[in-house]
Amino acid sequence: MRNFLLLSTTIVVGLLPIGYANAQVESRLSAFTDVSDETLLNPGDGDWLHWRRTYDGWGYSPLEEINKENVGDLQVAWTWSLTPGATETTPIVHDGVLFVHNNLDKVQAIDGASGDLLWEYNRDLPEDVVAAGTGNTATKRNMAIYEDMIILATSDTHIIALDARTGQEVWSVEPAAWSDGFRYSSGPLIADGVVVQGMTGCGNAQPGGCFITGHDPATGDELWRFHSIAQDGEEGDTWNDLPIESRHGASVWLAATYDPDTNTVFSGVGQPYPWIAEMSGLLPAVDTPGVSNDALYTDSTLALDPQTGELKWYFQHLPNDTWDLDYIYERILVDLPVDGEVREQVITTGKLGIVEALDRNDGSWLWSVETVPQNVISAIDPETGDKTINEETIPMIGQTTFNCPADPGGRGWPATAYSPRTETLYLPLAEFCSNTTPQPLDPGQAYTGGGRATFARVEVPDSDGNIGRLDAINLADHSTAWSHRQRSPITSAVLPTGGGLVFAGDWNRYFYAFDDETGDVLWQIRTNNAVNSFPISYEADGKQYVAVAVGNGSSQARALATLTPEFVNPAAGSVLWVFTLP
C-alpha cells in the first residue's frame, strides 16, 4: 500500500462545506480495502470488480433488494455529468466507492451512496490525441482494480495505474505508439496477478497487426506479447502466402475472460483489414500445398496462459472474414449439460448473432443457436462447427452484395449476460441487412488503412420495421425463452439480477427493467441521451443501486440509428444515472 496524502479535500472544496467534505471523503476512503487475488476470485455481492463483474463474464448481479415486485418504485438516486462524447463505460465499484472512466481519460472516484466526488484524475493528452478523440476513439469500455490501484488503458496508448484512494498516478507504460495508429478501446483484465491488455487500431495498416500483452501490476513492465496475427511459420501459412508486413487487422478491442480453475484467459479477436478479401490479398486462394487463406487468428477464440502468454488452443469461428463480422466479444463461462453430460463451456456470440459454445478445456465444438436473420452462413457442421459460406454474399470489387447482417453486427459490442437464476443468456440484438460495396484502391495506390467498404443498411426484407431485439436463450436446452422486439435499436449491454430483472437501454433514450422469465417490461425511464454503455448494480451502505451511463457518439449506435431516422438525440449530454428504491 502506498502512503500518498489525500488530495481529495482540495478537489471537493466549493462543492461542500470544507469540514463536511473532509469528513465525507475520509470516511468513505478510509473504509476502502485493498483488492486481493482472492477478492477478485470471489467479489462481494455488492461490488462490481470486473468488466462483467465476475471472472466468468456473466455480467450478473446477485443483489435482490430491487425485484419484480418493487421495481416499479425505482427512482433516481443521483446523477453525475460526464465528459461529452461516446460514453461506453463500465463503472468499477468497491466498498461503496464508484470509479468511472470518462471520455479523454478523466477518471473520477464518487461516493456510491451520495454521488459526491472523492477525487478526480485528468490525463494530460497530446493535442492531436484530443483532436482525434472528438468522435468515438476516446471512450474506454472498462477499467480494472487490483490491490490499491485502478488500472486503465488511455487514449494515447498507455496503460496506467492510479492509487485508488487518491487518484495519484503510480506507473505508466506505452506498449505501442498512438502515432503509429495503435489505439485502446477497452481496459485490462487482471488474471493470476497479471495485467492482460488487448491492442486495437490495427485497421491502420500496421504490419503484422495487433497483439495482447501481459504486464507486472507492480511496475507495468511488459512480461509477454502474443501476436493476434499468426507470424511467419506459425500454424503453417494461413495468410495466403502474404508476407507479414501485408497482414493487417486482428484488433483485440474488448477485455478478456478468465478461468481460474484452468488458469486460462479467453479472448476474442477481430477481423482482417481491409475487410474485402479480394483487396487484402486473401482472395483468390493460392494453390500451394500447406497454404490456406483462413487468416489466423482473426475471428477466433484464443485460450492463453496469463503468466506466459502461451497459446493453449484456438478456435476460428469465421475464417477469412470479408464482411466485418468480428468474433471479438465477451466469452461467458458456464458448466451445463450437453447431451446429458455436464461440460465446461465457453460461449460467445459474434456479429452474425450466432450463439456458439466450445469446450473450454480443449476448444472442441459443442453447439450453436442462430438468432437474427442472416444469409452469410448456409450451414454449420454440428460435429465440428465448420461453417459453409453462402458465396453470393462475398463482396467483390465492382459489385454490390446483399448480406444480413453487416457492420455493425446483428449483435455489437454491448455485452450479453447470463443469469444462473434462469440458466439463460440475454442478448441485445439488431435485425437489419446491407448492400455492401467495396471501395477499391486506385491503381498504384498503397493501402494505408480503413475497411474499404460502404454499407448501405436496410431493413430485413418483409420486416415489420422492428430493428431492436432482446432475446433470452436457455443455455440448458438452447431454446428461446422469449424475444422482445421493438423499433428502436437496443444499444446497451444487459444486466440480469438476483431480483429476477434484466436491465437494458436503447437508442431512443429509454432504460428498461424486463422480467427475466417473460420479457415483460416492468419499469422504464426516459433519460437525456442514448443508453449506450454497460449497466451495473452495486451496494453502498446496505442499499442496492443500479447505474448506467448515457451519451451520444458510439459508432455502433449511430450506424444502427440510420435505420430509425425518426429518433433524434442530443449531440452532447453524457451523464451517469444512478437509481434506487425510495
TrEMBL record:
UniProt keyword Oxidoreductase, yes or no: yes
Keyword Translocase: no
Source superkingdom: Bacteria
Alphabetical keyword list: Oxidoreductase
Transmembrane segment boundaries: none
Entry cofactors: pyrroloquinoline quinone
Pfam families: PQQ
One MF term in the entry's GO annotations: oxidoreductase activity
Domain Pyrrolo-quinoline quinone repeat as annotated: residue spans: 48-373, 485-546
Similarity field: Belongs to the bacterial PQQ dehydrogenase family.
Name recorded for this polypeptide: Alcohol dehydrogenase (Cytochrome c)
Naturally occurring in which organism (per UniProt): Pelagibacterium luteolum
